[in-house]
Structure formats: C-alpha cells, structure tokens
Amino acid sequence: VLFCGCAFTAFSQSQTSDHIVISAIHDSDGNAISVIPVDGSTCMLTFSLVGGQDNAERLYTAYNLDVRLPYGMEVCHENGVPLVSLPDDFSLYASGIGSLSHSLSASVLSNGNVRIACFSGRNANLTKTAGDMFQMPVRIASPYVCPGTHEIHITGQNLTVKENAQKF
Asked: N or C, which end of the chain is more exposed by having fewer CB within 10 Å?
C-alpha cells in the first residue's frame, strides 16, 4: 500500500448537551395543536435545535439523525419520497446567491425509521445555536391506533462543526 502525502486523522465523537426536540405541531390549516388526531388527518411536526446548552455556543455545519415514529403513524410521501423539508422560518440557515446554504435529504429505512441528513455544499455554518431545523408531515395510517401517549424517538443524532468535521 502506497500513501502519497495523505494524512489520516481519526476523530472521536464528543459529548454535548445540545439536542433536537419536536418544538411544534400544526394541523393542515397551520393552527398549533397539542395532540395529533387519530382520524387520519395530516399534521406537521417541527423539529428544532436547542443549542448552547453547555455554554459552548458552537455553530454546526451539518447534522443527521433517525426519527422513529410510533406504530400507525407515517411520514407523508410524494412520488415515494418523504416530504421532510426545511422549515418555513429559514433563519437557522444562511442564504447565498439565489439559494439557501444547506440541503436536506430524507429517506425511510427498512426498519421504518426516517433518516434525515442536512449539509452545506459550501461548508457554511448554521446562523444560530438554536432554531427550527426541519419539518415532517405525518399522518395516522392505521385505523387501529388508539388515542393515548405514543413516543417519537430521535436516534443516531450527529451534529457536526466545520472545524475538523468534529461530531457531537
């Protein structure tokens, strides 16, 4: 094996108390609601970054995570593609010439989790340490879902900073 001028550096993932939460639920008319109806209607979940928790005030460049919805709830699709999108309030993302600084991608994995990835092709930072990250339209897809409390899980969360592509 021949290595020509290549330097390999391994980075371990650092702990942070910054986290991602569901910050709002809106019905199809845009009204804030506190409960997702079981009648099959569509609701919009807004996921937000709660950063600066360890007083580091770090600006992230990219993130990825998986969202596991409860039984009977599914992300809405269009032509087989999950309709996960950047939020209506773009203030967390910088804008450049004719476009936003970041791109968002989503797919549904074989285990049913929705994988979300956001990155900047220009290697731009997010503009703030906290704010709306993405929106996910969901609907109750099974008539067997009963009213009650059901958990939505966020797993595999990685928040990445520009410097050395350090992950938190």
From this structure: N
* Helices within the chain (DSSP H only): none
Q: Which residues pair with 78 in a beta bridge?
A: 81
CA distance 41 to 31: 13
Question: How far is the C-alpha of 77 from the C-alpha of 81, rounded, in Å?
Answer: 5
Contacting residues for 21 by C-beta, under 8 A, at least 6 apart = 47, 48, 50
- How is residue 60 annotated by DSSP? P
Q: How many angstroms separate the Cα of 92 from the Cα of each of 7, 61, 99, 114, 162?
A: 33, 11, 14, 22, 16
Rg of the chain on CA atoms, in Å: 18
Residue (of 100, 133, 101) closest to 120 by Cα position: 101
Sign of CA dihedral 33, 36, 41, 47: positive
- Provide the whole-model pTM: 0.86
Contact criterion met (CB below 8 Å) for 63 and 160: yes
Q: Which residues 6+ apart lie within 8 Å of 60 measured at CB? A: 49, 51, 125, 126, 159, 160, 161, 168
| Chain segment 108-165, per-residue pLDDT in tens | 999 999 999 999 988 999 999 999 999 999 998 888 888 888 899 999 999 999 988 8
